[in-house]
């Protein structure tokens, strides 16, 4: 069953199954067809997200256990709603609470779970969980030999963690160092993980170990409860977390589809590069919708002014930023440092294969060619199997190779390995290289772009989003229309996301920040004034100014995006609440940029000065700045609210299944996680929805508190179940706009048989301060097949007969959504 809409709930942090039961009437009233649940399986104690699973076959007692889950499932059924689960096939927690992982540590290669995890058993299992080297920690007495309080067996204990010893390795009189040396595992510093790790991890997180779901037995054991819930009709759909991390995504999805049956709704978390499509053979309904966020930028970015904003950015920094060069630099850093171990493994295999085949290629040439190929890779991964690459992947590889300047013999060797063009005796080793290469390109891209470049290059923060193009080209309405038609053809049942637990900022923060491209000079004037007003807080350190110009640009823009629409500069409690959230974001942003400070080697001197600068900005004593900032932000807030409404209407009428991230039916000005995982005020949301009606558009306060957005969301969500064919299969038809405001509108129709929906929403209206003038002297050409019919205005209830030319001058509202009358 394809949902008409989903509502994402983040469990944990106080959210339980029983609390969701209380929210079901609200979600039903909003128009939601399916609850979309974050991972519910048992995770590490005090997990804040659930992706660190310790037992995939148990519902987490921390959020209500199986009994609570069953109560929630029953309440959903009674309400006529479905349930979609977020599942995590790629990795599990390395906490010793994970009994499978613990057994591997204790029994080594003899463990029945040794093949469950992606481990290189040619060397000892590395456990990089010490604060320093083993020798240093032993010398300071942090590692001791004790009896495990749970098993009563001897264990090496490091603070609160007791590592079980292999059978027969403990003996009286042996030193701790000797006992450690006798184990099938080695404790080491966390700093050694990038170089020495003997197992695959999730990205660069050593708390998450890769799972070998490509093995049939492992698949069966990790999916036992999941499939039980699907077959029992309790769960209607599955969201596959990080599908690109798997050794064989297609093979996994085919096995999952065969196990669930044809009716289970399956989507995959997959980041598509601009213009990239899901492999057509994947038996899924589509992605979770990151690419839709990038598509919306085509509508809401003023391309004619973007170069002016870039000039101001370069002038502020005192240098011209080459984004392509910055991307290369970020990918080089990740390859050489954060993923050094994964790179070294690939290099070792390639060198071995070179030796097998008599290829006279220098080791250094292979290293350089491999590094250049990884840096040049433009998408998250290819999808080769044990036999080689698919034809589309071969074509992609050829394009990448043509762009790489390196040793031709070395590059040719790597291409032969990837495509399987080697003697049969080398197929197994080449297949291992191919798998590891494909499992590295995704994390390398993600950490280089999302978690490095997007925190370094802050020209327009709204464009620094998950799934966005790291080197964006021109933005255009025509490309948006083209992308929607492709979406309709390729994945009409995929999720349409605008906010998630992983987005860099909430959808309404992005909607506001897009408006900087409409008024770059005004933004530049404001920024210069604000910097001057707070200049006394800037410090000069040995490594440069703090905060430097780039970070100052980022700070003021991020603050402009997160500033609540209802916040007064005199609201001390509101400022304090904002400061707490904003400081956490700033610390993370500085470290992710990996320039003046880093997660690995933090620069406390720089960080403390920048954080003090931010505290000063939001101090109630900084009255002059706060009042100026709030006043100057008002036109951006107003235009941002209009953008918010436009993107909401587009999302709810575009091809796909709209996903409402918890609370985002109201305004979502969140920052990067953990801020974006805060629980919304569900009580206020339910109260606002219960009293909303069509007069809400005339109340300025209801715009600012999110009630208008919520009302529009509910109106369109409630409509969708009554016209499933129109929303699922309806053609996407751009309509021609002419007149004074032709650049300030996007108008299109969805058409299926005798049903039609006509949508007109504003764009680029920063300079239009009077809503009555939004569409002055502007007309829309109504195609012959749509003209001469009666339509109902969904927000006014008015019925009208459409002529072939629709004059918008007299339209009183800011939105026009017309549905054919029955």
Adjacency order of strands in the biggest sheet? 16-15-14-5-2-1-20-17
DSSP summary: helix tally: 28
* Coarse shape: globular
Largest sheet: 8 strands, parallel
Q: Beta-sheet strand percentage?
A: 15-25%
Residue runs with pLDDT of under 50 for 5 or more positions: none
- The percent range for helix content is 40-55%
Strand elements, count: 29
Structure characterization notes:
The chain has an eight-stranded parallel sheet with strand order 16-15-14-5-2-1-20-17. Strand 12 and strand 13 (205-210) form a beta hairpin. The two termini are 26 Å apart. The protein is α/β, with parallel strands linked by helices. Helices cover 43% and strands 15% of the residues. The longest helix is centred in the C-terminal third of the chain and has 31 residues, at 623-653. Helix 1 packs parallel to helix 2 (65-78) and helix 1 packs parallel to helix 25 (682-691). The radius of gyration is 28 Å and the shape is globular.
Note the main attributes of this structure.
six-stranded antiparallel beta sheet, eight-stranded parallel beta sheet, 822 residues, alpha/beta, 15% strand, globular, single chain
